Amino acid sequence: VLSQNEYILTTGGGGEGYLTAFKRDPDDDEYCPVYANHITDATGNYCDGMRSFVLVGSTTTAMYAWIACAESDSVMSVDVTDPDSMSMEGSIPDSTKLDGAWDISWHTNNEDYVYVVGKRYGAGIYGGVVAVVDISDPSNPSVSGFVGSQAVGNAPNDIANPEAVVAFRAN
After folding, report:
1. Which residues sit opposite 56 in a β-bridge?
2. CB within 8 A of 93, min separation 6: which ones?
3. Sign of the CA dihedral 161, 94, 79, 138?
4. Which pairs with CB-CB distance under 8 Å and at least 24 residues apart come from 121-126?
5. Under a CB-based contact definition with an 8 Å cutoff, are residues 48 and 15 in contact?
6. 90-112 pLDDT, tens digit each
7. Those residues with Cβ within 8 angstroms of residue 24's Cβ, 6 or more apart along the chain or in another chain
């Protein structure tokens, strides 16, 4: 159920990729969502194949959607402070460190970083990557570190076809 000023964001759209915002229909007592706006990467190749995203920010400052983009091996930031007029803020493409960027996570203990897993495909390579991306400057993100594997079976350093990433702090 959406109340006033609450939105739903979704990714999709295949190779081109869309980040779509939905909001409450002001004429509907059932609180059903209606289309509000979308942003796409139809021309820039910054974020083809949008897969997943995290929101970083607050309702009193700027809010950014950080998006994992599999087909362009990149991470993109979108200013969603006002979902009715979203805008691309920055991106970082890296075909080695963000290869097949599939999922993304963020943790409040390290607010300036997101964590990305990617899937490596092609020429007998079926491994994966885990990357740390510095997001302290949303217009100019950078990869701070990464680890990657080239093929399944290279344990203990193997990252076999990753699907998801979760950042957490252990006790």
Report:
1. 64
2. 45, 46, 72, 73, 74
3. positive
4. 124/151, 125/150, 125/151, 126/151, 126/152, 126/160, 126/161
5. yes
6. 889 888 888 888 888 887 777 78
7. 2, 3, 4, 6, 31, 32, 33, 34
